[in-house]
Design a protein that fits this description.
This protein has 375 residues and is of the alpha+beta class. The chain has 2 domains: 248 residues, Zn peptidases (Aminopeptidase, 3-Layer(aba) Sandwich), CATH 3.40.630.10; 110 residues, Alpha-Beta Plaits, CATH 3.30.70. The protein contains 9 helices and 18 strands. The strands form 5 sheets. It has a 6-stranded mixed β-sheet with strand order 1-2-6-3-7-16. The protein is elongated. It holds the Pfam family M20_dimer.
């Protein structure tokens, strides 16, 4: 397979930081221009504060209805990491594996299907604009759309050995404010209600909810409080993240955090909680296993799989009950850093694999592909 990475380079060099709406929309226009020749109809979900979300729809025939899912945004602010370069084995740049590279895999797969069948059918593509900042705007849209399909494939980066992702932890995030009563630490110590002290006790209790054997963690990632050593702190804040691998642990951690916040108020402080559940667990299911079995049959060999602690929009799609598999992008590393890169041979493998998969699922072809070798 002879891929021209100049096209990917153009996509990479367009800054699409999540909070750069102009840049995200510009990147969206790039994708529209590339997808337009494939015959898709476009639905644009216009947004004021984040980039527009884009849904590309194909014709309907008798095959299974498949949703491809990706995101347009990256984590790199404007004028930070913008360079693209390549060597014999890798391409480098912001988004080459997370996830402009994954979207480029999907684009080339659709081109292959167009060439093979003359018309694209039964495979639609949703590109959202805010995945890297939690998908707060796109989450309900993704859920509404994903539940209409027989399966959803997400193009986040593959594992090191080209694993597909069958499970992801759920996540909840909180910004908690503790309000006490400020006072002079020397003259009026007894009159104060120490927000810092209350928050410190909360921190210890919340962290104790962690159960590594069950894959459940609570991390107090940032704390701030008080104005100086000679003043009883009247206000303190903390940012808390909880991750969990199943619904029961999700319930335990979320209830535990809320109970700790309520219980500490007996000391006289007031606690305000903002945030909560951000993405629910993506857990293996019988329907997902059936989909994976079909894919293994199409490709002629068993595909490696993995569970990941990080979240993606696959969590959201899976929450609707639609069988969902993630990790169909290229293998890469250094994502979210200025060393981000993706393996060239991985692009080739994923394009070949997904072309075979969609050929079978969407067009009901009876011809099973010969085994596709691993890179």
């Amino acid at each position: 397979m002879n891929l021209d990475y100049a096209e990917l380079a153009d996509l990479i060099r367009c800054n699409s930081h999540s909070k750069n709406k102009q840049g995200v929309d510009q990147h969206g226009e790039q994708m529209i221009a590339l997808i337009e020749p494939l015959g898709y109809s476009l639905t644009r979900y216009q947004r004021e504060h984040v980039g527009d979300h884009l849904l590309f729809r194909s014709a309907r025939t008798g095959g299974k209805r498949i949703l491809l899912l990706g995101h347009l945004d990256t984590v790199f602010p404007k004028d930070t990491f913008t360079e693209f370069h390549e060597d014999e084995s890798y391409v480098y740049g912001p988004g080459v594996c997370d996830m402009k590279g994954g979207n480029w895999v999907a684009l080339n797969v659709l081109r292959n299907l167009k060439k093979q069948f003359g018309q694209l059918a039964n495979v639609d593509w949703l590109l959202v604009s805010d995945e890297e900042i939690g998908s707060d705007d796109s989450q309900s849209l993704t859920q509404k759309i994903a539940k209409q399909y027989d399966a959803c494939f997400v193009f986040e980066a593959a594992g090191k050995d080209h694993q597909l992702v069958v499970a992801r932890k759920g996540i909840a995030t909180y910004h908690i404010t503790v309000s006490g009563k400020p006072a002079h630490a020397g003259n009026h110590y007894r009159d104060g209600i120490d927000a810092n002290f209350a928050m410190a006790n909360m921190l210890l209790e919340m962290t104790s909810l962690t159960d590594l054997k069950k894959g459940s963690t609570v991390n107090v990632g940032k704390v701030q409080g008080g104005i100086g050593a000679n003043t009883i702190s009247g206000k303190a804040t903390m940012q808390v993240e909880a991750r969990f691998t199943n619904q029961s642990e999700q319930q335990r951690l979320l209830e535990g955090i809320e109970n700790i916040c309520m219980a500490i108020e007996i000391t006289g402080v007031k606690v305000t909680i903002q945030g909560g559940l951000q993405r629910t667990v993506m857990a293996p299911s019988d329907e997902q296993q059936n989909l994976l079995t079909t894919i293994n049959q199409i490709l002629g060999q068993e595909q490696p799989v993995e569970h990941r602690g990080g979240v993606s929009d696959a969590n959201t799609a899976a929450s609707t009950g639609t069988p969902t598999l993630d990790g169909f992008g290229p293998y890469g590393d250094g994502d979210h850093t200025a060393k981000e890169r993706a393996l060239k041979s991985s692009f080739e493998l994923r394009i070949e694999q997904m072309t075979a998969i969609l050929s079978q699922l969407c067009y009901r072809s009876q011809q099973v592909k010969q085994p596709v070798s691993q890179a």
